[in-house]
Design brief:
This protein has one helix at about 1-95; strands at about 100-105, 110-115, 120, 125-130, 135, 140-145, 150-160, 165-170, 175-180, 185-200, 205-210, 215, 225-230. It is an alpha+beta fold and about 230 residues long. About 15% of the residues are buried. Its main location: secreted.
């Protein structure tokens, strides 16, 4: 009986020792697994963080460049809108006949005019039409009310025993001439015409050269006329 009890006690102690050893091994394995998992988790958190930082940096750079492009396009669009608005306003003014431009005038029944010892601007006082009021019958000067292409014509009557020399001038610069040299003692007529691109405010007029002369009577053959061809 005593031997049996002793045997049972030894068996119990051995079983307890084995269980303790197994538990220690399982605890060691669990600890190793936990440490490996912690390392893997740390590694898994670190790498995406670095990638995320690079991603955000690239996004910010792209957004900055995109913002600059958008601002540039916005400025261009605003400029285009202003130009379009100006063009629409100008077209609306044209539509409302604000820039209907046409004039025709003659020297009137004055007989001979000249010669003078200096160039003079001819004043065509007998006005047939002055649509838009761009021609001034007091000064003989046409002032362009708007930028565009204009057509002008100059005709002259003269007695051919003297020189006749006229110039169609723009802002003090002769553009074309109407000239006839002495050919005898008779009345003759001549003319010239020309198209000019004018800026708003440009002046166009006819000059009689010094020591030359021109003639006009009730037939009104000495004239100055012009009109706007198209707006620019």
């Amino acid at each position: 009986m005593s031997c049996t009890i002793l045997y049972l006690l030894l068996l119990l102690l051995f079983s307890c020792a084995c269980m303790s050893e197994v538990q220690q091994e399982e605890k060691a394995v669990q600890t190793e697994r936990t440490e490996r998992l912690n390392v893997e988790q740390k590694s898994a958190v670190l790498t995406p963080g670095e990638c995320q930082q690079h991603f955000f940096t690239a996004i910010i750079s792209e957004l900055t460049e995109l913002k600059s492009t958008v601002n540039s396009l916005k400025n261009k669009l605003e400029d285009n809108e202003k130009q379009l608005k100006n063009t629409e306003e100008q077209l609306e003014q044209l539509r409302r006949n604000n820039y209907k431009v046409a004039f025709a005038a003659t020297l009137g029944n004055i007989g001979d005019l000249g010669p003078f010892n200096t160039d003079i601007t001819l004043v065509y006082k007998k006005v047939f039409v002055n649509e838009g009021g761009a021609y001034n019958p007091t000064t003989g000067i046409f002032t362009a009310p708007v930028k565009g292409v204009y057509f002008f014509s100059v005709s002259a009557r003269y007695r051919s025993n003297r020189l006749m020399d006229l110039s169609l001038s723009k802002n003090g610069q002769p553009m074309v001439y109407v000239i006839n040299h002495p050919l005898g003692d008779r009345y003759e007529s001549t003319a010239n015409s020309f198209s000019l691109t004018l800026e708003k405010g440009d002046h166009v007029y006819v000059r009689l050269r010094h020591n030359t002369w021109v003639f006009n009577n009730e037939a009104d053959l000495t004239s100055f006329a012009g009109h706007l061809l198209f707006f620019l």
